[in-house]
Predict the 3D structure of the following.
Amino acid sequence: MIIIMSGNFAEHLMERAEKRRVMEKGAFLFHEGDEVQSVFIVEEGVVELTRPQLDGTAITLQRATDLTILAEASVYSRVYHCDAVASMPALVSQLSRSAFLANLKKDQHFSELWSVHLAKEVQSARYRSEILTKKTVRERLDAWLAFVDHDMPAKGCWKNVAEQLGVSPEAFYREMARRNA
Amino acid sequence: MIIIMSGNFAEHLMERAEKRRVMEKGAFLFHEGDEVQSVFIVEEGVVELTRPQLDGTAITLQRATDLTILAEASVYSRVYHCDAVASMPALVSQLSRSAFLANLKKDQHFSELWSVHLAKEVQSARYRSEILTKKTVRERLDAWLAFVDHDMPAKGCWKNVAEQLGVSPEAFYREMARRNA
DNA sequence: TTCCAGACATGATAATGATCATATGTGATC
DNA sequence: GATCACATATGATCATTATCATGTCTGGAA
């Protein structure tokens, strides 16, 4: 019988955290080009991973909120390929990369949870991509609903959902109104 | 000193493959709801992962071509959450899940490569998402170029790139023409 | 209660791209 | 060389959405 790993990896990671850090809005956790020395978990607030473009605009690669691990892939890189900035005041736990890798090596269970975590992230990131290939608000919402098992978003969340779908709030409101009619 | 793992995980996986399978166009590798029993690597051809929707349309979650591992996340699931169908004739290697997991357990190096592979997939999937949140062809191409270090796509690839960007070929050709002018 | 910020709602306009139609170029095959 | 498939190219039209403007509603703070 195959045992499927479960449990929240972020929590396991937090148990091993070495430091905590309070970040004010606008504070940087790291910059592009910095050496990767730690693994970070956002406990509260919001930290965004952004990659500045040549033309001055920026791409947001990840928007990390409660219990989200930041820039997982950087664990295996020498330097960061993006900036991390608190877009809201945030509380961040951290663990040195060497300690993290040592944990992976010596703790089989921890290592498996890490893989499971990464696999889940792959899955949800792929799904998000596919939602965004849809061109109309209607199709994107349909795809999103399939992903969340068709529970309609509560009114307070509409704006956030609209952002996840990559559409303007107005367009989203209109689509929701259309569905009620 | 931290050793960063490198090498192609798919190749390591193929070395351990137990079976090979030739698939005709349109043939299914597995269906939604099937028990996960194997890990698959596409050697040649194309296999697509699709998730049928209520309205009859389908979401394509992954389009696997040469040396791509199929549905990584399914390794940790009991059943598949999507269909896998060859959209072109394909050659697929497979390894039973139990053997795969056993390899992960006993071979530290293999296990690390697996994590590195997953981390890279997370990274590229996230990047793809962010490209797709851009609304105009121009912005999407800019973001894509930043990702591939600004090497312009060769003419034979344009159609493929257009698809990656989630825009129609025509719109893509026009944008490329605009940039030459 | 009063005030205020922010989400929700809706109309008008302009920008943008999907789609359809059609044409050109190019490499492979016979 | 003739032919075929397919990528590239370009024009015209139409559907859709972003954006701006403006207004309403609701929950929390004073």
